[in-house]
Amino acid sequence: MAEFLTDIKTLRERARQEIDKGPITEAYGADVQRVIQVCNEALATEIVCVLRYKRHYYTATGIHAETVASEFLQHAAEEQQHADMLAERIVQLGGEPDFSPDTLTTRAHAEYNASLDLVEMLKEDLVAERIAIASYTEIIQWLGDGDPTTKRVFEQILAQEEEHADDLRGFLERFPKS
């Protein structure tokens, strides 16, 4: 049987100390305030993506619009799930999720896009997904072993962002190059 690095008596004593910190213990290895800030930036990114995909869903027109719009709606729902995961993690870390519309686009990594051209919608959504992929990959590397739970949240989101990018690339390949 493997031995703990810290004896059980000490672990129990530490668990009682600073009980108001919830899941943040002495073993937490990251800067919790900076992690909350990074999560809030990612939250803003996800909310902007929800709004962009929703707009594209409602405004998509053309021969391929129905199929593509259906994908936009699915992506919007998944981006909302990402936002919910991030907001929940921010609260677990003792922070407050920032849903302020006044600063949403300045905090988000991705940009909002109001294009009415279906191919441009796909391109802009793919650019946004690529930004999220690059950003979240950096965040995962930055977190390292300091906050394994937040790292897993970002890993789950990253996997789905990569699926979104692949979906969008597939749609773009169906259209003639202009």
From TrEMBL:
Cofactor(s) demanded: heme b
Gene3D superfamilies (alphabetical): 1.20.1260.10
Superkingdom in the source lineage: Bacteria
Sequence ranges assigned to domain Ferritin-like diiron in this UniProt record: 29-178
A GO cellular component annotation in the UniProt record: cytosol
Record keyword Oxidoreductase present: yes
GO molecular function: ferric iron binding; ferroxidase activity; heme binding
Keywords, alphabetical: Iron, Iron storage, Metal-binding, Oxidoreductase
Residues binding Fe cation, per UniProt: 46, 82, 129, 161, 164
InterPro entries (alphabetical): Dps-like (IPR014490), Ferritin-like (IPR012347), Ferritin-like_diiron (IPR009040), Ferritin-like_SF (IPR009078), Ferritin_DPS_dom (IPR008331)
PROSITE patterns: FERRITIN_LIKE
Family annotation (SUPFAM superfamilies): Ferritin-like
GO biological process: intracellular iron ion homeostasis
Broadest EC class assigned to this enzyme: oxidoreductase
The enzyme's E.C. designation: 1.16.3.1
Keyword Iron (UniProt): yes
UniProt-recorded name of the protein: Bacterioferritin
Organism this protein belongs to: Actinomadura coerulea
